[in-house]
Amino acid sequence: MSWNRKHLITIEELSVAEIEQILGTAAAFRKILSRSVKKVPALRGKTIVNLFLEPSTRTRMAFDMAAKRLSADVISFDASSSSTTKGETLRDTAQNIQALNADMIVIRHAAAGSPLYLSRILDIPVVNAGDGAHEHPTQALLDAYTMREHLGNLRGKKICILGDILFSRVARSNIHCLTKLGANVTLVGPATLVPHWFTELGVNVSHDLKSALADADVVMLLRIQHERQTSSHFPSLGEYTSMFGLNKTRASWLSPKAIIMHPGPINRGVEIDSDLADSSRSVILEQVTNGIAVRMAVLYLCAGGQPESVTTTE
Ligand code: CP
């Protein structure tokens, strides 16, 4: 089957076969990252613009690295020194980037729907690097890739996502990705942040941390997304930590083989104890490294590459 998408906007719209194509392509590119020469010519001559209008460390740098590993030229848009500060609209900014002959835009924006909007008005491919509380597709793909490295096939595996689900684009993309891959997903946290209606997405909702952790193969922690919450959803951060923070005692409820994940940025001592974040069962930094390979795959495929044509020669 060939890859037919120009844009990557959501996981929700992807078929299982398309997810497999991305993960398979990422596996081929992952090998390059451990070589001394970490570069292939796949996107030589192409220019990719990272249009990040919301803060980012991991995603922006991973897209930057991924483009460079594919030999593309990369321009990282600096919002604070751009004409957006003079009132230029997203539409005008993006159309000017296209007029400057960019070949692809990777966008992060606080407004849900921004990547879809750009994909409808531009001729070049658009990749969603996180839009509001909507989706963060490449995060879910790198999470699935990392889980498969540890657990193999995810069908029937029990994945517990713990924390601020309501405001999390990472949770939404992971719910779509993991359920498509056959995993059994349980969302856990306070009822205000994990409302029951999430069950409509084919997942379980629980407010009982102990039972949710007991049979989990993976616990994925999410930070409290203060930047998106419009009112307080729990009395205080201290109370959140005392009820739902992953500490040594609660980690002992997990199976010894269960892995701990977090998309970052982590708030040490809030959703996770510092020692656990650095422990041998934490795969948080593996997620970051795998994020380069997954983004290489997404850039390569959206630029018109085909999974079966991946070449890893320099
Ligand atoms: N996981 C993630 O999106 O991290 P950044 O906000 O640093 O990109």
What is the H/E string?
A: HEHEHEHEHEHEEHEHHEHH
Low-confidence stretches: none
Level of helix content? 25-40%
What's the main sheet like? 5 strands, parallel
Named once each, the bound ligands are: phosphoric acid mono(formamide)ester
Spatial strand order of the main sheet: 7-6-5-8-9
**So how many helices?**
11
Q: Could you report the average pLDDT, rounded to the nearest whole number?
A: 95
Global morphology = globular
Q: How big a fraction of the residues is strand?
A: 5-15%
Amino-to-carboxy terminus distance? 26 Å
Structural class: alpha/beta
Number of strands: 9
Determine Rg (CA atoms, Å): 19 Å
Q: Could you explain how this protein is built, in words?
A:
The chain has eleven helices and nine strands. It has helices at 16-32, 58-69, 90-99, 114-121, 137-151, 169-180, 209-214, 237-244, 248-251, 274-277, 284-302, and strands spanning 47-52, 73-76, 104-109, 126-131, 158-162, 184-188, 204-206, 218-221, 259-261. The strands form two sheets. A five-stranded parallel sheet has the order 7-6-5-8-9. It starts with 15 loop residues before the first helix and ends in a 12-residue tail after the last helix. The mean pLDDT is 95. Residues 56-60, 130, 136, 139, 263-265 line the site of phosphoric acid mono(formamide)ester.
